[in-house]
């Protein structure tokens, strides 16, 4: 998927992010849709791992990511009768994962105010082993971005979403998506240059 030209001077870092998260997206590609009506079980089987990877990229913790995705599917189950089609169900899940990840990050921030901060990188050895050193550096740098910046880049380059879809999933305007992406790429450039 080509870059959207969010930033002219950071195109090198944009290409690097696009390569890394595009590689992960390819690894997690959803299988072909079954014939007939889509069930909740089909959605779970087809999208669970991709949503877990999305959550891991946002919250940087595999166990928490699993919990966030499980909550998203639980919410989908509660709202199943009100959804119009499979695309709406996937959009609901994506938005639920973003919102659940935000909640986790807010709780972490509150907890850090009472206890000394600690660093955890709970990505599985398996997922990191599948990445080159360059890809690992990009994923590590993404973890240092503010949550909204990380969300926008992950949804664009891992999720493969358009600006409009990112705006819908995150509840921000398209203009804010664009400016946030630009700031995120600038920050990522600084992080990767300093590291």
TrEMBL record:
Residue ranges of domain RNA polymerase sigma-70 region in the record: 43-109
Annotated keywords: DNA-binding, Sigma factor, Transcription, Transcription regulation
Protein's GO biological process: DNA-templated transcription initiation
The keyword Transcription is annotated on this UniProt entry: yes
SUPFAM superfamilies, sorted: Sigma2 domain of RNA polymerase sigma factors, Sigma3 and sigma4 domains of RNA polymerase sigma factors
Listed GO MF terms: DNA binding; sigma factor activity
InterPro entries: RNA_pol_sigma-70-like (IPR039425), RNA_pol_sigma-70_dom (IPR014284), RNA_pol_sigma-E_actinobac (IPR014325), RNA_pol_sigma70_r2 (IPR007627), RNA_pol_sigma70_r4_t2 (IPR013249), RNA_pol_sigma_r2 (IPR013325), RNA_pol_sigma_r3/r4-like (IPR013324), WH-like_DNA-bd_sf (IPR036388)
RNA polymerase sigma factor 70 region 4 type domain: residues covered: 136-188
A Pfam family hit: Sigma70_r2
Similarity remark: Belongs to the sigma-70 factor family. ECF subfamily.
NCBIfam families for this protein: SigE-fam_strep, sigma70-ECF
PANTHER family registered for this protein in UniProt: ECF RNA POLYMERASE SIGMA FACTOR SIGM, RNA POLYMERASE ECF-TYPE SIGMA FACTO
Protein name: RNA polymerase sigma-70 factor, sigma-E family
Originating species: Streptoalloteichus hindustanus
